[in-house]
């Protein structure tokens, strides 16, 4: 496989896309191209085909996704176009052009009935449209069998876009009390940490062969509930908002969420010698930038 020089990143406006843009300034050895909907509309197969008829890359990092979990229950076609059909097309382009594909997937492909962290080969059973479209995207990559790495992650937050941390900061300042779910357990992922790990993978790929499809899990270390996460946000920022623990059944949403979706990261840590930060340390780092 030739050396990786040119890299396409889709989803430039998303949390991971924006985090990568900040970090790549320290990686001058690669030529990055960042695209959003304007340059590369992943909901339209003709536009994807037209784009790749004119551009070729050594590596594609697909950070783009339809991530509005509840809205996906109504907008099934759009979610499927971006999370499944576009991914299939990217995999076909990667195979045709002898490129590597790094694709970001989700903990929501699991049903959340496990009692210990999910490994890459645990049974998959998505409980909502978002999860099932993301799973179809993974399956399309496996079927096409291009050289690819699938990274499943969870509870992504950052300084950018809409996410749990920013919502809590806003609501915590507006309200004296907030009810937050305590019976959904997972692991937050700071987008900067994920972006930095992806770049570490890219450096390794430059010196080794990626053949076939590899699947890895990535999140920050440790586990918590959304309630614990909210409590930590207010503690670090000295926001005097009382957090009340509630059950999932007390906060009904259109899409069903997994009760337990902690990911086992042993495989990616071993393969790429990654040092993954603890979720509270990364939360502190993010809040410092937001303050």
What's the helix and strand layout?
Elements: E1 6-10, H1 15-23, E2 31-35, H2 45-54, E3 59-62, H3 76-96, E4 100-106, H4 129-144, E5 147-153, E6 156-157, H5 164-174, E7 177-181, E8 185-186, E9 189-190, H6 191-205, E10 213-217, E11 224-225, H7 226-237, E12 242-246, H8 266-272, H9 279-290
Parallel strand pairs: 1-2, 1-3, 3-4, 4-5, 5-10, 6-9, 7-12
Antiparallel strand pairs: 8-11
Order of helices and strands: EHEHEHEHEEHEEEHEEHEHH
Structural class: alpha/beta
CATH superfamily annotation: NAD(P)-binding Rossmann-like Domain
Q: Given the C-alpha coordinates, what overall shape results?
A: globular
Whole-number tally of structural domains: 1
**CATH architecture classification name:** 3-Layer(aba) Sandwich
CATH class: Alpha Beta
Description:
With 291 residues, the protein is an alpha/beta fold. The protein has one domain (6-163, 190-219, 261-276): 3-Layer(aba) Sandwich (Rossmann fold). 39% of the residues lie in helices and 18% in strands. The chain contains 9 helices and 12 strands. It has helices at 15-23, 45-54, 76-96, 129-144, 164-174, 191-205, 226-237, 266-272, 279-290, and strands at residues 6-10, 31-35, 59-62, 100-106, 147-153, 156-157, 177-181, 185-186, 189-190, 213-217, 224-225, 242-246. The strands form 4 sheets. The protein has a 6-stranded parallel β-sheet. Strand 4 (100-106), helix 4 (129-144) and strand 5 (147-153) form a beta-alpha-beta unit. The longest helix has 21 residues, at 76-96.
């Amino acid at each position: 496989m030739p050396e990786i020089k040119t890299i396409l990143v889709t989803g430039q406006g998303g949390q991971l896309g924006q985090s990568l843009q900040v970090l790549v300034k320290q990686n001058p050895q690669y030529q990055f191209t960042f695209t959003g909907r304007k340059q590369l509309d992943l909901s339209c197969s003709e536009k994807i085909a037209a784009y790749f008829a004119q551009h070729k890359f050594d590596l594609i990092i697909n950070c783009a996704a339809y991530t509005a979990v509840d809205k996906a229950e109504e907008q099934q076609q759009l979610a499927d176009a971006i999370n499944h059909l576009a991914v299939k097309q990217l995999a076909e382009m990667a195979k045709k052009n002898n490129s590597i594909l790094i694709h970001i997937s989700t903990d929501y492909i699991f049903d959340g009935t496990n009692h210990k962290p999910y490994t890459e080969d645990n049974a998959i059973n998505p409980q909502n449209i978002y999860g099932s479209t993301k799973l179809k995207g993974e399956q399309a990559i496996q079927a096409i069998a291009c050289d690819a790495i699938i990274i499943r992650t969870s509870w992504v937050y950052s300084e950018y876009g809409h996410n749990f941390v920013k919502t809590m900061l806003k609501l915590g300042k507006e309200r004296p009390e907030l009810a937050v779910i305590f019976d959904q357990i997972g692991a937050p992922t700071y987008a900067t940490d994920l972006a930095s790990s992806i770049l570490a993978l890219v450096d390794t790929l430059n010196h080794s062969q990626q053949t076939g499809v590899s699947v890895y899990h990535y999140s920050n270390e440790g586990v918590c509930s959304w309630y614990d996460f909210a409590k930590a946000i207010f503690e670090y920022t000295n926001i005097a908002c009382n957090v009340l623990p509630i059950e999932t059944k007390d906060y009904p949403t259109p899409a069903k969420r997994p009760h337990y979706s902690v990911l086992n990261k042993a495989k990616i840590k071993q393969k790429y010698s990654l040092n993954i930060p603890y979720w509270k340390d990364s939360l502190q780092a993010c809040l410092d930038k937001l303050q």
